[in-house]
Design goal:
Elements lengths: L1 E17 L5 E21 L4 E5 L11 H10 L13 E7 L10 H16 L6 H11 L3 H5 L3 E5 L4 E4 L7 E6 L6 H10 L14 H4 L4 H4 L8 H7 L1 H14 L4 E2 L6 E5 L2 H14 L4 E6 L14
Parallel strand pairs: 3-4
Antiparallel strand pairs: 1-2, 2-4, 2-5, 5-6, 7-9, 7-10, 8-9
Helix pairs in contact: 1-2, 1-3, 2-3, 5-8, 8-9
The chain binds cytidine-5'-monophosphate.
Length: about 300
């Protein structure tokens, strides 16, 4: 079974002050983008769950959310038949989403593992029943059960699907360094940031989803930007340089380090990405579709 796991960007991210449990309340508009990890699931004899990856720097033990997702779903499997031969699974990860970039790659892999193994093992859980398993794995995992476009609240785990934005594409800019999410939230606290009222406000999604990129971009914010730029001042400078060079607003995704801007059409995003690659040779710059279709083996094939 071959499964695609898309990355996300936070189009908009408001963050409240630190809560008693150490997390921060959020209000975020998250969308998937056309940048994917690929997961291959193969049934094996026995009950073992194994993970391998095409990149040596990615953990393949319990440090990887894919294994934790598989184990948490295995606990919900119905009583297994005595001596049933193919209850194990070998999972292969082809890693393409940059790590420490605020693109949710690990969370997406975990959510797609829940969906894929729920089918492969005939566990028969509904999305609503997978939701608590996803939330226990990480704040962003529940979004990826409800992609491609959602209003995310709580610490990220309360997910309400909303229509995709009108802009069809983004240019994604990934610097050669990643940022640690706990480090960015730590800086956020030290800077005394966090507006409790901002995360309680309903956002005018019905209007925002209708706006073209030029009118939507000025409305978007990411409250983690000052904290991320305090941790990595080069990132703040890079964002300013990119805004100058592109002549449009550039935002950070999640806790960084990736940056993006939006375009109404894919062709415009490709042209801008080509221009920026010529100027910023050391950066990974890519034009990506917003809210892409996922045509993989989790989709039932008819006929
Ligand atoms: O839930 P997840 O494992 O993605 O969170 C990683 C870290 O990010 C947490 O340990 C916490 O420091 C921070 N975080 C937070 N508030 C959130 C989400 C994450 O403080 N809503």
């Amino acid at each position: 079974m071959r499964v695609f796991a898309p990355a996300k960007i936070n189009l908009h991210l408001r963050v409240g002050p630190r809560r008693e449990d150490g997390f921060h309340s959020l209000a975020s508009w998250m969308v998937t983008i056309g940048l994917f990890d690929t997961l291959i699931f193969e049934r094996t004899r026995g009950e073992g769950i194994t993970l391998s990856c095409d990149r040596g720097d990615i953990p393949t033990d319990e440090g990887n959310l894919i294994l934790r997702a598989a184990q948490s779903l295995a606990a919900h499997r119905p009583e297994r038949r005595e001596g049933s031969a193919l209850d194990g699974v070998a999972i292969r990860l082809l890693k393409r989403i940059p790590v420490g970039a605020g693109l949710g790659g690990g969370s997406s892999d975990a959510a797609r593992t829940l969906v894929a193994l729920n089918q492969l093992w005939h566990t028969g859980l509904e999305i609503e029943q997978l939701q608590p398993l996803a939330a226990a794995l990480g704040s962003d995992v529940a979004f990826f059960l409800n992609q491609p476009s959602a209003d995310c609240r709580g610490r990220g785990e309360h997910v309400t699907p909303i229509p995709p934005p009108r802009p069809k594409a983004a240019v994604l800019i990934c610097p050669p360094y990643g940022l640690s999410t706990p480090a960015v939230y730590g800086a956020f606290d030290r800077l005394g940031l966090g507006d409790a009222t901002a995360v309680d406000q309903p956002f005018p999604w019905p209007q925002w989803t209708e706006l073209p990129s030029e009118r939507l971009l000025p409305l978007l914010t990411n409250d983690l930007e000052p904290a991320a730029f305090a941790v990595q001042p080069d990132l703040g400078k890079l964002r300013a340089q990119l805004e100058d060079a592109m002549g449009r607003i550039v935002r950070m995704s999640g806790s960084g380090s990736s940056l993006f801007t939006l375009f109404d059409m894919m062709s415009d995003a490709h042209a801008a990405a080509d221009r920026m690659r010529a100027t910023f040779a050391d950066l990974h710059i890519e034009a990506v579709e917003l809210c892409p279709m996922l045509n993989d083996d989790t989709i039932p094939k008819h006929g």
